[in-house]
Each structure stands twice: as C-alpha cells, then as structure tokens.
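Researcher: We are triaging several targets before committing to wet-lab work. For this one, the compound of interest is pyridoxal-5'-phosphate. I'm pasting the protein sequence and the ligand SMILES. What I need is the predicted three-dimensional arrangement of the protein with the ligand bound, expressed as structure tokens, so it can go straight into our comparison scripts without reformatting.
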Amino acid sequence: MDKLLLIPGPSPVVPRILDALARPTVSHVGAETAADLSLALENLKKIVFCAAGEPFIVAGAGTLSMEIALLNLVSREERVLVLSQGYFGDRMGQICESFGVPFDILRSPWGSVVPPEDLARAVRTGSYALVAATHVDTSTGASAPVKDYAEILKGTGLLYVVDGVCATGGIEERMDDWGIDVVLTAAQKCFGAPPGLAIDVFSERAMAKRRSLPAVPAYYADVLRWLPIMKEPTKYFSTPGVNEMRAFAEATRIMIEEGMEARFARHALAARAVRAGLEGLGFTSFTRRECLAETLSVVRYPEGIEDKAFRAGYAENGVVVAGGLGETAGRVFRMGHMGNLTGAQILFALEAMERTLAALGRAVEKGSSLRAAELVLRP
Ligand SMILES: Cc1ncc(COP(=O)(O)O)c(C=O)c1O
C-alpha cells in the first residue's frame, strides 16, 4: 500500500503532477521545456506577488536557493544579520560562514520566533547590508512575523531575504507590498511538486545589487549566468531538470487555478483541523501557540509514547511523519499539512493515528479526533 507522506516536505504529489513528471524527457533547450519554464516563472511571480523582479528556477534544492540569495547580494566586506528560530535559520549562518561572509545571528528559543523589537534594535546599529529571515522553520513549526520584519526594514536600505521553503505558496508572502527583496524556496513543500528545484525570486532592488557587485563567489549559483536563460529558455547554461520543471509548471498551474487566497485559506483550515484532531487525542504542541505555522505541526509525545515505535506503527497504518530535528529528536514528531493535501487525507491520517495509539496501549475514544477535525473542516 502506498503510504500517505505527511513529513514536512516532500509533500504528497497529486497524479496530475506525477503524470507531467512521467512524460518522456525532451530536449532541455526545445520549445516544450522552454514553454514549461516560462509558464512556471510567470506563475511563480503571481504566487509571491512580485510584479517586476526576476524569478529563477534551477535544478537543486532549498539549500541551493539559500546560497543563491546570499552569494548574489553581499560582498565579503558587508555584514549579514540572520534571524534564526531553528535548524534552518542556523543553516543560513553556516552558509555565511562557509563563504566567509561576516554575519551575526539573532536566535529565538526553539518553538518561538525572534521578536520584531530585537530586529529593530539590531538594525539601529547600522552594521548590516542584508537581513535573512526564515518564514517557517521546519524544525520547530514556528512562523515568523515576516511582514512585521519588513515594516522595520522599510526605508533602511537593507536588503531583506525570506526563506520560504516551508511557506511559499501555502502562507502569504507579498514581495512587492511588504518590500521583500528575495523569496527563496523549493518545489517539494507547499507547491506540492517533487523535489529537485531551487527557486528564488529577486526584486528589482536585489537585481540592481547583484549588478553592482563586480564578481560573486559562485558560478552555477550566479543569477547573472542564469538570467539570459530565464528570459529565453531555449538558450543553454546548464541542463535543467526537464521533467521536474514540467511537473513544477503543472504544480503552479494548479495553484493559480485554485487561487492564492483560497490556497492560503485551505492551508489555515488544514492546520486547524489537524490540531483539533491531535488535541482530541491528548497531544500538545511544541510550538508556542502565537507562532503556529499553517504548514506543519510539531507535536510533543505524551509520557509513555516512544518516538521510533510510534512512527513505525503509524507508518504500518499508512502514514509517514518525521521525527524531531536537533534538540527535539525523540521528543516530538513533525507532521506536514501542505501542498495539495485534502480534508479526506487529514481524516485518514487521524483515523490511522487513533489505531496506532490504541496498538501502543493508549486509551483512545474511537472516532474522537475525526469528529474534532470534521467540526473544523465541515462546521
Ligand atoms: C525552512 C527551510 N529552509 C531550507 C531548507 C533546505 O531545503 P532542502 O532540503 O530542499 O535543501 C528546508 C528543508 O526542509 C527548510 O525547511
């Protein structure tokens, strides 16, 4: 039996997208691939509400999209401020370190976010050229106030980069209105596409900054090498993931058909339904209530439930969730609810959860979590 993949990315890929992936591989510089890339780029700008600016989609993954954002926007003489609420915020710091880019890191406790006041205070030092924030850190399930950060940065001249790997397409990110310079993301989470792509959308200001740098410590990750291909995808720089690109184009078509407002609302509803169900089973959230992300839940194990046994049993019952990362390993499980997930899949997951807990000897009132979730899904 195929298992329902509810790890926090990759998310389940619907047949329409899988069909696009499975069609024969064609020339990477042919008309078909060019049309796929052009459509994906055009839709991507709609998804992050960026009218001007330049979108880039290249073979890779979210970590490459982080490198692309960083390497194209600062020189080694400039300083970066990283706002980190967990594992992936820290990763941005590691990338700075790897490339010798000076940086400071403002960390929140796991499960919470960096308060906007802390950013405001740091900005007043005048030390920075760029601020990088993680929208949703997949290790903690906390969603940062990226719009509030943007307000603070308005008029300061600092570039503002948002890691949307676990948010873009599922939670609002309005580049133009809010003043975000780069949204970096990947295909495998809220887009509901298979993994394999690094995605960055650069504002006009970000492009101007790249053009002002005489050189950057990157070759494949240099956006100026990719720009001619994004403008005219029959040109060659490096072979794109032809099938992934086609699948991604289809994923964005589904998103535009659904409508972004409807998609954000559906993610919010899914999050509430999952949480109602889990609370009904006695689980509590690791993430602070005021920071809960709509795209995943990070859930504490109650006393007596062992991580490996629980996840193995849950998988046997048809659902795969992820364990904790870093300091939360063994203490929590992480459940994604993003992309093209349906209400029926959420109910299936809760029913399987009830069976898993019962098999582990917990007293579970059959159907209680489903009833709680259904009240949210179909009030
Ligand atoms: C917020 C965030 N940023 C960056 C990454 C890195 O993405 P990838 O694993 O595709 O390299 C992830 C991966 O889960 C993520 O959740």
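Researcher: Any quick observations?
Model: DSSP finds 14 helices and 15 strands in the chain.
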